[in-house]
Task: structure prediction
Amino acid sequence: MKSLFFSRFLLLLPWVLIVIIVLDIDSSRAPLPARAPRGGGAGSGEPRSAAAARPPPQRRPEAALPTIYAITPTYSRPVQKAELTRLANTFRQVARLHWILVEDAAARSELVTRFVAAAGLPCTHLHVPTPRRYKRPGLPRATEQRNAGLAWLRQRHQHLPPPQPGVLFFADDDNTYSLELFQEMRTTRKVSVWPVGLVGGRRYERPVVENGKVVGWYTGWRADRPFAIDMAGFAVSLQVILSHPKAVFKRRGSQPGMQESDFLKQITTVEELEPKANNCTKVLVWHTRTEKVNLANEPKYHLDTVTIEV
Result:
């Protein structure tokens, strides 16, 4: 009896093994469940077809951005290189910016020439001296330098076919700029405006905006000015500059603090101004000034064994 059991067991064993192997192979060939695409599928709240059809976000090509032209008057003083270095460090982070650096001098200085060569920026280096009679206290400054920048810009573009997308603003070398400001001004259609911090004896000055239009000025000095705004508080479309070839900063008849108004009156009206910076409620530029340098211990004659540019 026992031998009969073992003989039948041995006879069935190979068939049992074959069945187990076949079942194992079939289970390994079973298809894996489909994975839902990221951002779609069950539980995402969005149909898979809509998620698959949605195109990825497109970044505007840098070549399509309007060029920002920054006109910066500068003059020789102990802090000049320090001020220009701070400004260059900001400009290097801005796409498609062309720096127009204008020295108040009869010739290009070696210091600024070397600085421009090492700045790593698209830069045009100009120079024009301020006549001595206009260097008296209380008179407008940097008039000749800003006009030289405007003249270069018009000459550069007069033979190019329109449209020529671009934006101009006046960037004094002692100001501090947020990178957000350049994003704001790049969409300027005609003339855009925004607040300026630390100016006019106040923490800030700004255009007053109602229903998207400038209706007045929050300022600490002469609110009756046609455009009660700081030089750092506006930008102008390149097309406006080119279509008004006689618009310049004036010397004759211009009163202190009126240069901005005298210039803007030639190219726009208050009603046409474009408020930026969240309807002129954010400060993105500060009229900072480097304190007067204390050189009381500087020797009258050079005593060091080396000459260092500061």
About this structure: Residues 30-52 have pLDDT under 50 and may be disordered. The first strand starts at residue 67 and ends at 74.
